[in-house]
Write a structure and sequence with these properties.
The protein is of the alpha/beta class. Helices cover 52% and strands 12% of the residues.
Length: 274
C-alpha cells in the first residue's frame, strides 16, 4: 500500500514539474520504462533513486523526509514475510490490502471467507488439495488464522460479507466441523464491525454469479481496490471502470440478501439442523 501511494505521488510530482519520462530517465541514467514501472507500482523505488527524483522535482524540507520515509516503509517486510514460501505477489497484495483497509466488502459464492474461518474448517478445506503436503497445509491454516488478527485491532476494518447460501450448505469436513463454523458465523455476526448477510437461493440470478471478490476502501484519498481470485492466479484492479463494475455487482447481491437479523436466524437454523 505504501508503494501504491508513493507511486501515485511520484507520478503527480513529475506531472507538476512538467518533466517527460525521457527527461527523468536521462537524469537518473536509466530507461524510461523503469520510471514508468515505478510510477505504475510495478517495481519498488530504491532510496537513492527516490532522493534523486525528489532533487529533480524540487521537493524539500518536511515533505521530502515524509516521502523518503514512505520509501523505507514500502520496502519493509510485512508480518506475512515468514510465509513467503506460500505466497505469490497476489497473495502478498491481499494481505497488504487487508492490513491497510478501513472497510472491506466481500462476496463469496462457495466458501466461508478466510477472515471468518475456524481452524478446523480451514484445515478441512486444504485437505481437499491432494498435492499439498500436510506440513504445508498446516502452515496455510496458520496463515489463515494470522490474517484474522486484522479484525482484532483497536480499530478493525468495517467488514461487510455476503455469503451465498451454497457456501453455508456445502460440507467442508465433518458435521462437527460445520457446526463449529456455523456457530462462529452466528457469534461473529453480533460484532459491531461485521455486517454478515446471506444470499438465499431464492434470490435468483445476479451479475456476480460464478465470481468471488473483495472491495477495499481506505482512509484519505486512496482509491478503492478490487481483488479477485481464480484457481491459478489473483488479480487486483483499481481503475474507476473496474471498481464501478464490481461495486454495482456487490450492491446488487447486498440488496437481494437477507437483512442481518434474518441472516443470523438463517445461519442458526442451519446450525440446529446440522
Amino acid at each position: 500500500m505504501q508503494r501504491r501511494r508513493l507511486a501515485a505521488e511520484l507520478h503527480r510530482l513529475r506531472a507538476a514539474s512538467e518533466k517527460t519520462l525521457d527527461e527523468v530517465a536521462a537524469y537518473l541514467e536509466c530507461s524510461p520504462a523503469k520510471i514508468s514501472r515505478i510510477e505504475n507500482n510495478q517495481v519498488a523505488v530504491r532510496i537513492q533513486d527516490a532522493r534523486e527524483l525528489l532533487d529533480l522535482y524540487g521537493v524539500t524540507d518536511g515533505r521530502r523526509e515524509e516521502l523518503l520515509q514512505m520509501v523505507r516503509e514500502a520496502r519493509a517486510k510485512g508480518w506475512w514475510s515468514r510465509y513467503a514460501d506460500l505466497l505469490d505477489e497476489g497473495g502478498e497484495t491481499l494481505l497488504s490490502l487487508e492490513e491497510e483497509a478501513a472497510a472491506i466488502q466481500i462476496y463469496e459464492n462457495s466458501l466461508v471467507t478466510g477472515l471468518l474461518q475456524t481452524p478446523a474448517y480451514a484445515r478441512a478445506y486444504f485437505a481437499a488439495w491432494p498435492a499439498l503436503p500436510l506440513d504445508v497445509a498446516e502452515r496455510r491454516v496458520e496463515l489463515c488464522l494470522d490474517r484474522q488478527r486484522a479484525l482484532e485491532r483497536a480499530n478493525p476494518p468495517e467488514l461487510t460479507v455476503v455469503l451465498d447460501e451454497a457456501a453455508l450448505r456445502r460440507s467442508v469436513g465433518s458435521p462437527a466441523v460445520m457446526r463449529e463454523q456455523l456457530a462462529r458465523l452466528a457469534d461473529a455476526s453480533a460484532q459491531p464491525w461485521l455486517t454478515l448477510l446471506v444470499l438465499p437461493f431464492e434470490a435468483g440470478p445476479h451479475q456476480a454469479m460464478g465470481f468471488t471478490f473483495r472491495i477495499f476502501e481506505f482512509t484519505g484519498d486512496d482509491p478503492k481496490v478490487v481483488y479477485t481470485e481464480m484457481l491459478n492466479r489473483r488479480c487486483s484492479l483499481d481503475s474507476a471502470e473496474d471498481v464501478g463494475r464490481y461495486t454495482a455487482a456487490f450492491q446488487q447481491v447486498r440488496a437481494r440478501a437477507l437483512d442481518p437479523a434474518e441472516s443470523r436466524r438463517f445461519i442458526e437454523g442451519l446450525l440446529d439442523a446440522t
